[in-house]
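In practice, a research group might receive sequence data for several interacting partners and want a quick structural hypothesis before committing to experiments. The following worked case mirrors that situation: the sequences arrive first, and a predicted assembly follows.
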Amino acid sequence: MIILLDAMGGDNAPDANIKGAVKAINQIEAEVVLIGNKDVINSKIKEFYGKNDVSEISDRLKIHHTTETIEMCDIPTQAIKHKKDSSMVVGFKLLKEGNGDVFISAGNSGALLTGATLLVGRIKGIDRPALAGILPAYKGRLMLMDCGSNTNCKPINLLQFAQMATIYNRNTFGIEHPTVGLLNIGTEETKGNELVKESYRLLKEKAEELNINFVGNVEGRDAFSGKLDVLIADGYTGNVFLKTVEGVGKLVKRTLKESIKKNVFRMIGALPAMPSINSLAKAMDYKEYGGALFLGVKKPVVKAHGSSDERLFEFTIKQAEQFVKNKAVDQMIEYFEK
Amino acid sequence: MIILLDAMGGDNAPDANIKGAVKAINQIEAEVVLIGNKDVINSKIKEFYGKNDVSEISDRLKIHHTTETIEMCDIPTQAIKHKKDSSMVVGFKLLKEGNGDVFISAGNSGALLTGATLLVGRIKGIDRPALAGILPAYKGRLMLMDCGSNTNCKPINLLQFAQMATIYNRNTFGIEHPTVGLLNIGTEETKGNELVKESYRLLKEKAEELNINFVGNVEGRDAFSGKLDVLIADGYTGNVFLKTVEGVGKLVKRTLKESIKKNVFRMIGALPAMPSINSLAKAMDYKEYGGALFLGVKKPVVKAHGSSDERLFEFTIKQAEQFVKNKAVDQMIEYFEK
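A structural hypothesis for the assembly, expressed as tokens:
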């Protein structure tokens, strides 16, 4: 297996990308190809590890040289069209041509989604591919789809998100009938805006035929109960949800830290509780749950968090290997193109 | 001052409503009128306090007898029209006629908003009144408006929410130029759905003229930084945001509790940290911040949380007294009707 990693994308590139790959390489079986400027990568390898070449670190660590980088401020479609030798465009080409099994990038999100759709291609039967993210839940996890790739959706898109997420959960997590909820502001079917009301009707109507275990509308307050496997939303609402989770998580960490620091007695008193507090902080950090999977395109594409650090790259690379091993994309192609 | 309290509305009515009023009465100067069935209320007073009449508890505690109750399952407009002797409809009438200064209800939200608009009336110049809720933030608070009363909004509605929230923050919290952000999925002005993009343009265009300190788009991840005073959203998105905050809060509490209980050593170890953990739990609980204010109608109306317990009713009653004292509604009328 070959994992293609955009070495130049992300807020902490290329340092975090390279360090993450080095950390991951001995925990996986796959090859990792760092796609980016060879000179830059090699000088970092020298600086961080005192080696002259990536091969001295592992014979499964490679470099694929490119000369351009898509920046965060680039306009997605233009960048994909014109920056032919960028780490992202080259990554997609290698993936499409079969010279890699999965592509990971923490770069410009818009460009990544545009590139995946244009260069790798949609699965026949899927109108809109979408980002599936994994969030913490009570004694479990929650898959959110769409995390933000489609700002404007139609009910049919949400139905397809439900189908894809169901296949993924069944295949990868071994949940035969994953529970699927529709993010809404009330549980009654009369609640919500037009999109969500129509999506509810469509999901309800098609659930049995498509083997979706649709449990109806779910409010954000009940999303993390651990009983829900999949939460479906249009990309706008899904992204509001995702970033709110992140915001509250940040607030929790900060408040707890300050509250403990308030006085020295509290601080000393808190020391024995630190394992509990740390495991909470870990459970609350959705980055612990890795990158988001771009489902609906013909090959595995993983969107790493833009602010990924080396630890998160390490985690996302391991997650990507699992993504390929589980053949989720193949199963989706088989299901939708049948 | 007279505070009108719907004694029959809410998941824990009338017990929590009555107990909350009794707890609050000695902490406030105002009269509290319990609106509801006299026999039911008096039998509860007997049961809880061994008294024959509310006057034995305080001469500022009264009952206004009504015979009907609007249930959670009632259709809002029909309930307001037909249940003329319900605690909610009577509450609005007393408020409108000047026999009370503020009305609090934890009952059917739709009926409360419909009733406030139909029976009390909108302020001239306001197209859509909306719910303003107070949430925790880092070393501070965040006002969210609209919390969920208007599922479908136009940009002009969001502009008016920004105006009302600005007046409220200036007047009640003494913040001369409260920072106002627009909830969105990115900070760039090109981000978001059509409503939010147009609202951004309108807010930017009108900010100076209307003396709104508009700071642009704000993502959920940055909303709780403590630097933002007001977060504006349409009622659908605002409600998704609000309930997601609640959901994460619940997850935090539950995870922390379980994590501490995991083994007895951890539990004992955690004891000295309990003040910190409790103050976090308190800071995370948006119920601590009271009910939501229905801004844009001619009199003060407070929507108490549907699941309010006695502690929350106590808090909301004190908050309502403050709401009247600060004359926020009068200032809004003066501003918009000028």
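Before designing any experiment, note the following. Chain B touches chain A through 55 residues (CB under 8 Å). Residues 235-261 of chain B form the longest helix (27 residues).
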